[in-house]
TrEMBL record:
ATP binds at residues 95-102. The keyword Magnesium does not apply. InterPro entries: Mrp/NBP35_ATP-bd (IPR019591), NUBPL-like (IPR044304), P-loop_NTPase (IPR027417), YlxH/NBP35 (IPR033756). Pfam families: ParA. CDD domains: Mrp_NBP35 (cd02037). Binds and transfers iron-sulfur (Fe-S) clusters to target apoproteins. Can hydrolyze ATP. Belongs to the Mrp/NBP35 ATP-binding proteins family. Keywords: ATP-binding, Hydrolase, Iron, Iron-sulfur, Metal-binding, Nucleotide-binding. The lineage of its organism: Bacteria, Pseudomonadati, Pseudomonadota, Alphaproteobacteria, Sphingomonadales. One of its GO terms (molecular function) is ATP binding. This is Iron-sulfur cluster carrier protein. Homodimer. HAMAP family: Mrp_NBP35.
């Protein structure tokens, strides 16, 4: 479907504004609400050349659209070929950082495992991995076999792979270069033998890792995490849009850090507001998957590597309720 930019310009007119070096690298262009989102093939370009390409595109489109978003893929040829993976991939994303996406990914995986599902966990936050800490596997290192990584086992029935598990194994499998996309693919295309679903904890935002995920890993679905604040919800809407445009069904939005139960008096308050994600999900036309309370015990348990979902009580139940919905979706879409 063609979009229309500021001043009534359509896709082809905007494309015509691009300098030739950018036009030949253009993989896709989308126009919506005055915003142009371009995916450019940056194969063979070093960091300086990528920055220069981005500057020329922004300059060329300035005044013609209100906002320009540019994503660069590393390699056109690589982008064409999907990675064959056994398990179905469930991406957990958020537009904004710090909303509890890693905490939610770990607990969702553990809650699914408790229901008897065979689930693995990939920490796609290449530069800021946190799953080794959340699952209590910090001291473990992944091994490699037949050129592929072997995930580490956690105590919660969830095998996992994270950059934090790789320092030794990285050398053993001849790391395929510094590209972040390559790193992600090695985590995904590993020995996930027997797993029916891989939960992937994505870094926040809509950058290289997300694009690699969409183009090469073909997620079966995505869960979006948001806190109740407006700013987080605006970014959540962007994440929903990114997956929807990539043809990935969005299972729905989870509201994290909703409702603070005071550990002293038991009174519940809503420091970040309440209900924002539910109405935002309705606006976005995606299901609302429920609330996870803001509870200091969830942070403590995460820091201690003993995921909340492995325990009992209302906060574990909140993750179990989410896992039931995901399990139902796995069955419906099998
Ligand atoms: N429901 C919750 N109640 C209390 N603390 C929480 C909750 N969810 C997450 N946290 C805490 O908030 C902090 C951020 O969580 P987390 O690292 O999971 O977020 P993230 O979205 O993955 O962050 P990043 O953008 O850095 O990847 C952590 O200290 C975590 O323990």
């Amino acid at each position: 479907m063609s979009g229309v930019a500021q001043g009534g310009r359509d896709d082809s007119e905007v494309k015509a504004l691009l300098p030739e070096d950018a036009a030949v690298r253009l993989q896709s262009l989308q126009l919506a609400q005055g915003r142009a989102t371009l995916v450019l093939d940056a194969g063979g370009l070093d960091a300086a050349a990528r920055a220069q390409l981005e500057r020329t595109v922004r300059l060329a489109l300035a005044g013609s659209v209100e906002e320009v978003r540019i994503a660069m893929t590393a390699d056109k040829a690589a982008a064409a070929a999907p990675v064959p993976t056994g398990p179905r991939i469930l991406a957990v994303g958020s537009g904004k950082g710090g909303v509890g996406k890693s905490t939610l990914s770990a607990n969702l995986a553990v809650a699914l495992a408790r229901m008897g599902r065979r689930v693995g966990l990939v920490d796609a936050d290449i530069y800021g991995p946190s799953q080794a800490r959340l699952l209590g596997t910090e001291g473990q290192r992944a091994t490699a076999h037949d050129g592929k990584l072997v995930p580490v086992e956690s105590a919660w029935g969830v095998p996992a792979l994270s950059m934090a598990h790789l320092s030794a194994a990285g050398q053993a499998i001849a790391w395929r270069g510094p590209k972040i996309s390559g790193a992600l693919l090695q985590l995904v295309d590993a020995h996930w033998d027997g797993a029916e679903v891989l939960v992937i904890d994505l870094p926040p935002g809509t950058g290289d890792v997300q694009l690699t995920m969409l183009q090469r890993c073909k997620p079966a679905g995505a869960v979006i995490v948001s806190t109740p604040q407006d700013l987080a919800l605006i970014d959540a809407a962007r994440a929903v849009e990114l997956f929807a445009k990539g043809g990935v069904p969005v299972l729905g939005v989870v509201e994290n850090m909703a409702g603070y139960a005071c550990p002293h008096c038991g009174e519940t308050s809503d420091p970040f507001g309440c209900g924002g994600a539910e109405s935002a999900a309705a606006d976005m036309g995606v299901p609302f998957l429920g609330r996870i309370p803001l509870d200091i015990a969830i942070r403590r348990e995460g820091d201690a590597g003993t995921p909340t979902a492995a325990g009992t009580g209302p906060r574990a139940d909140a993750f179990a309720a989410l896992a039931r919905q995901v399990a139902a979706w796995l069955d419906e879409t099998a």
